[in-house]
Amino acid sequence: MWRQAGAVAVLIPADPTIPEAAIVSDLFVSSFKETSHITDIRSIPLWVETATITSLDATDVAKAISDSWLLEGRTTGFHRPTTFDPTECWRQIRIALRDRNIECGKVGVELSAISARDYEGLISSLLPTHLSDATEMAASLRMVKSENEISLLRQALNLSEVGIRTVRDTLAPGISRDELSALWLSTIQAQKGQLPLTGVWDFISVGTNPWGSNTVAQHSDIVKMDVGCVVRGYSSDCARTFVIGQPTKSQKHIYDGLLAGFNAGMAILGPGVALSEVHKVTNDTIQKSGLDFFHRGHFGHSLGLGPGTEEWPFISADSPVLAEDGMVLAFECPFYINGLGGFIIENQLLITKDGVENMNKLSIELYSA
């Protein structure tokens, strides 16, 4: 929230017989306990003041609150930080390391999540522990999803497709980009039911500007929908392209090239296949369709719990990764052309031991409204 580490942390010993520990901000301890298998939970205070009372005596609510704080272990002089105090988080980690007799060992840290300003404080707080960069290890562990993670991503995608259908079926001349975005959001909110929806995002464009200005749709306009729903922090990612009426020759030429590339990449993607090879086949096919100099840096990415929708690994020319059972990927072929519009085909895929499951249900053909 403030681009600062130290509000939360998890300690995972390499020895599986040694229990994990979690440092959690006090506002979220209860919800963390409900969803995590970790039992060693240590809390640090946030700026938000809270209290929990089990019974209310209307004549002395202040005493009930004070009693609850005493039961929680709050002492005289307790104060909350302006936001949160990273040094307290690091101190709790140091204690957890000492409790496990591993404080003199080596600890891998996901340094991509630590700012240069935070780094010195982290090192000094954890002495004599030796810190090393475990960013790639953490990314590799997140790359393969558990059944529960796959379920959350599937729920998020299913909800997204409901919103896409509604927008698709509403397309007509005279509707604006902002009206489509509002319709997308209201549809998701109406359909979410009991899902723990934690976010919704969209990149919708209408007409010749592929970047989303509030254009009013006209006949033959391209409509690009690149959207996602976030369920318990896990974001779906898929996209479709529509046209108001029948596509022009130019629009069809662009879309057909992207579709050819998409289908070529899908034809080889599977367990054990290099993501770099998928990139090469996809890009080469698009070039051979008549877009001679076309080159996109990546044609998709992993999906998960990151702060953005795009997680490593990427379907890129330099990717060292082989597709693996349990990976969830967004495979996409976009092309944004100022003066013509935004074109994109994107599906959410599950790599299985036998092949690839397309998690989407909507057709990838260019839809004429």
User: What Rg do the Cα atoms give?
Assistant: 25 Å
This entry's quaternary arrangement is: single chain
Number of DSSP E strands: 15
The total tally of domains equals 2
Assigned CATH architecture of the largest domain: Alpha-Beta Complex
Q: Any idea what the CATH superfamily of the largest domain is called?
A: Creatinase/methionine aminopeptidase superfamily
Q: What's the order of the H and E elements?
A: EEHEHHEHEHHHEEEEHHEEEEEE
- Characterize the biggest β-sheet: 5 strands, mixed
Spatial gap, N to C terminus: 41 Å
* Average pLDDT for all residues: 94
Strand content: 15-25%
Question: Which class best fits the helix and strand makeup?
Answer: alpha+beta
Uncertain residue ranges: none
Number of helices: 9
What name does the CATH topology of the largest domain carry? Creatine Amidinohydrolase
CATH class of the largest domain: Alpha Beta
